[in-house]
Write a structure and sequence with these properties.
3 helices, 15 strands, 226 residues, five-stranded mixed β-barrel, globular, 17% helix, single chain, alpha/beta
Length: 226
Amino acid sequence: MKYERIKRAKFIERKNRFIAEILIDGKLELCHVKTTGRCKELFIKGADIFVQEVSVPGRKTKYDLISVYQNDMLINTDSQVANTLCVELIKHGGLFKDVKSIRQEYGKLNSRFDFYVEYEDKKAFIEVKGVTLEENGVALFPDAPTSRGLKHINDLIELKAMGYEAYIIFMVQMENALVFRPNIKQDKAFADGLKRAKIEGVNIKAFRCFVGEDSIYPLSEIEVQI
């Protein structure tokens, strides 16, 4: 995926869940934060960031925060991009062969899943999670407790028992991660649910991504350790 109108800036302060103060072109500006994740290890004062200039009439901010440097690693923090990357994987044969249809935001049981895909003679539900937390080459999810994520897991387990294929895809929005693990310290219930999902036959995959100043795309699948 390619971004347009990207500019370099400095992160100053996260005002609330959706708004941050940045320093750009020598001026303090407000910027929309495109993730609800805490990202405390990333959003620190003085961090180098990249923002996208957005021109929308009536909008309070004219920038979206896209990525941030952690040491020498650039991490994409755009929570909306994970689904876009998953679509690219599906369409280019990175997950399935002979894809017949793709539907987004598909409701089933108690959840609305990111994708419903028909391929070969199979029908699959897919939930995608963007990953921005990394420690010593290990990608971790979540960075805060997620009851919604656990609900998705439980429903995918039920769908698998009903005869559907079920997938959880972790899109690791950085290049340096070597393996993926659930973040037991932050959410043991989610980690236990993921382990149960694996036992019940839910497919769990993780892909690391190249992240550039104005682009992001999947690089390769990495090992999932549960």
